[in-house]
Structure formats: C-alpha cells, structure tokens
C-alpha cells in the first residue's frame, strides 16, 4: 500500500504553489518572443528605410549628373557652333570680297572696251554699251551722261544726278554703292560704277547693278540643311543686301535690330557692337528670336568697309542639344 500511495503522489499535477511560477515563466517567454519580434520588425524597418534612402540618394546623384551633363553639353554645342559659324563666315567673306573685286573689274573692263570704240564724246550712249553688257553677270547695266540722265540696257531712263554713285563717278572715282530704292526698280541693289572717259575727260558714268533677288541667291547659305541668314552691311549697320528673310529676325533693316530684340542677353553690349562695325573688327554676339536663342558673327570684307554678318539659327542649336541630351538620358 505504501508503494501505491507513492505512485499516486508522483502522478499528480503541479501543486498550487507551483502554478503561479509556471504562469510567470510562460508570460516571460511570451514577452521575450514579442520583444524579439519587435526587434526584428524594427531591424527590417531600418533596413527598408536605409534602402529607400540609398535609392533616393542614387536618384539625386543621377539627376544631378544629368543636369551637369546637360549644362556641359549645352556649352559644348554652343562653343562648337560658334566655331563653325566663325569659319563659315570667314570663308564666305573671302568669296564675297573676290566677287566684289571681280564685279568692279568687270564694269571697268566693259567701260574700257567701250571707250576704245568711241570716236567722239557725243557718240556715247547706252546703245553701244548694251551689246557689251550682255556678256556680264549684272542684273542690268546703266549709262549716265554728264547731266545725270541715266539709261539702262532694258530701255528705261531716269534722272540720277543726285545719286551718290553718279556724283562720285563724275569726279573720276570708281567704287561700289548700295541703295534700298534703286533708280529703276525701287528695290535693294548693289551698284558697281566707274567713269566713262574720252580723251581723258569724264563724259559719263557706267554702272553694273545686282538686284535684290540676285543678291539673295548669291548670299544664300544652308547650315546642316537649314537656311540661315547672311547680311551684307555698311559700317553703320545698315543692311545693303541679304540672303532673304529667315527665322533670325524676320525682315532686318539694320544689323543692330537683331541685337536689340527683347530678351537678348549677350556678353557684347550694343555700344561694343556698333564700335566693332565702325572699326571693321570681327564680333560675335547672341540674339533672341521667336525660335529661341541664336548667335551671330560679323566681320569686315577685305578691301572694303562693309561687314558680312551671318546667323546660326536657334533651331539648329536646340536640335543638336536635344539629340545630345537624349543620348545622355539613355546612357543614364
């Protein structure tokens, strides 16, 4: 019996004094598990926040790098285009200087040939010049007698006694003259003139002229397949010939009109631009058009006091920058 009581004692559950202790232990275990879970959750949150911060930092770096790239690319394209514009203008200036010299030689040669055929001063007329004029490249040729009465090779006549080229020609000078209201066509014309002599005495003036459409064709220039503006200007900025109206500034009467357009920002002041034209110095400046910001370059024609000015259209610059920026964005 004593043994049976012992087994019965061993098989009984925990005593009342042990129950609170076990409950406390269980609650402690639960608390520990909860703490560990919270710690793990906090760690996960920290890791997640860290990854987000790293991603944001990387995004900021990428955006900053892209904007730096865009800025550097814009400067590179602008510098490249400025160099191209300068080289293009210099090349055209040499060609136009040669053309002006050739035109002056041509009108002198025509006049010299006609002089050699004269047997008297009274014989001088447009009729004798007309046949020779057919071999020239001028839009039309004129003869002015001593009174200033002027005849062209198309049969027209007008009084040119107050025209500057007639006065200078009668004084024995040869040269080039530009007007925006030509005698016969009331348009922009470039006129090469020289005195007509008989026995050493000036008996008239012979001139060969290029009309506006001829000058537009001669000055027309394309840059990367797009038409740009070229202007032939006097030293005070007045446009004496141009390649036609373009996006640069519409119809330009004076080179300084481009500079003074609203919104223009340039390192060259208007006073400096005007001084460069007066002195015949090369000058580059920025302009603002409806298409955006463009650039212009002007230089003097060798042997003449005229300036050649050419613009680099804003549309070309912006297109080049956009393509380069797109390539940079793809790389990023």
Task: Write up this protein.
The chain has 332 residues and is α+β, with helices and mostly antiparallel strands. Helix content is 49%, strand content 23%. It has 8 helices and 13 strands. Strands 3-2-1-6-5-4 form a 6-stranded antiparallel sheet, sandwiched between helices. Strand 5 and strand 6 (201-211) form a beta hairpin. The N and C termini lie far apart (91 Å). The model has no long low-confidence stretch (mean pLDDT 80).
Tell me, what's the shape? Answer: rod-shaped
The helix-and-strand class reads alpha+beta
What radius of gyration results from the CA coordinates? 43 Å
Order of secondary-structure elements: HHHEEEHEEEHEEEEHHEEEH
Kindly state the mean pLDDT as a whole number? 80
**Number of distinct helices:** 8
Estimate percent helicity.
40-55%
Low-pLDDT sequence parts = none
Number of strands: 13
Distance between the termini: 91 Å
The description of the largest β-sheet is:
6 strands, antiparallel
Q: Which percent band covers the strand fraction?
A: 15-25%
Strand line-up of the largest beta sheet: 3-2-1-6-5-4
